[in-house]
């Protein structure tokens, strides 16, 4: 019989909005145009700073979930390396791009239980809606009230997850950090 996943394992979920990207070509509102928007030089610096901050708190991702938009992948690439151990799995998922916050939650609920540290790099408004839903009343905390002002580019929210991924919900997480500047 296979061993059950360790329900007591500490899991960390980081939800991050991509860093600053160039606007799409004027007059071209197509999804293809939006998906191909690269980071600006300032966006690369923002992403690198967030990578540094994540390393400082000891976060090492095992799974990186990114949308198919170029700016999401470039945000992750600009973080820099997290450790000298094995590189995390990086998965691109179309459900992280303009499919709603419930879709992002569905993706997370499919994560295998042997993975403990995940970062999702996606887009507003879907990502912000999920952050606010999971954060719940934690935004009343003076250190986290910044979330009520929005989730601008390069913002991130860190959650400790208590329980299995397939049951991910507000009552299963604690907001531990919000960086929204």
H/E element sequence:
EHHEHEHEHEE
- How much of the sequence is in beta strands? 15-25%
Q: Could you list the spans in which at least 5 consecutive residues all have pLDDT below 50?
A: 1-5
For the largest beta sheet, what order do the strands appear in spatially? Answer: 3-2-4-1-5-6
Mean pLDDT: 88
Please tell me what the overall shape is. globular
Helix/strand-derived class? Answer: alpha/beta
Q: Report how far apart the termini are.
A: 49 Å
Give the biggest beta sheet.
Answer: 6 strands, mixed
Residue share in helix: 25-40%
Description:
Helix 2 packs across helix 3 and helix 4 packs across helix 5. The longest helix is centred in the first third of the chain and has 16 residues, at 41-56. By secondary structure, this protein is an alpha/beta fold. The termini are far apart. A six-stranded mixed β-sheet has the order 3-2-4-1-5-6, sandwiched between helices. It is globular and about 45 Å long. Helix 3 (70-79) links the parallel strand 2 (63-66) and strand 3 (89-92). The protein is built from five helices and six strands; from the N terminus they run βααβαβαβαββ.
């Amino acid at each position: 019989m296979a061993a059950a996943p360790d329900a007591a394992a500490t899991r960390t979920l980081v939800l991050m909005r991509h860093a600053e990207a160039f606007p799409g070509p004027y007059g071209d509102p197509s999804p293809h145009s939006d998906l191909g928007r690269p980071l600006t030089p300032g966006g690369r610096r923002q992403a690198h700073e967030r990578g540094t901050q994540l390393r400082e708190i000891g976060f090492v991702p095992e799974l990186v979930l990114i949308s198919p938009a170029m700016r999401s992948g470039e945000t992750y690439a600009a973080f820099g390396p997290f450790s000298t151990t094995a590189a995390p799995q990086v998965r691109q998922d179309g459900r992280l791009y303009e499919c709603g916050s419930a879709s992002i939650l569905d993706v997370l609920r499919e994560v295998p239980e042997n993975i403990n540290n995940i970062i999702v790099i996606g887009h507003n408004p879907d990502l912000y809606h999920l952050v606010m839903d999971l954060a719940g009343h934690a935004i009343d905390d003076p250190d986290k009230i910044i979330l009520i002002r929005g989730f601008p580019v390069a913002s991130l929210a860190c959650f400790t997850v208590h329980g299995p991924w397939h049951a991910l919900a507000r009552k299963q997480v604690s907001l531990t950090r919000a960086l929204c500047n």
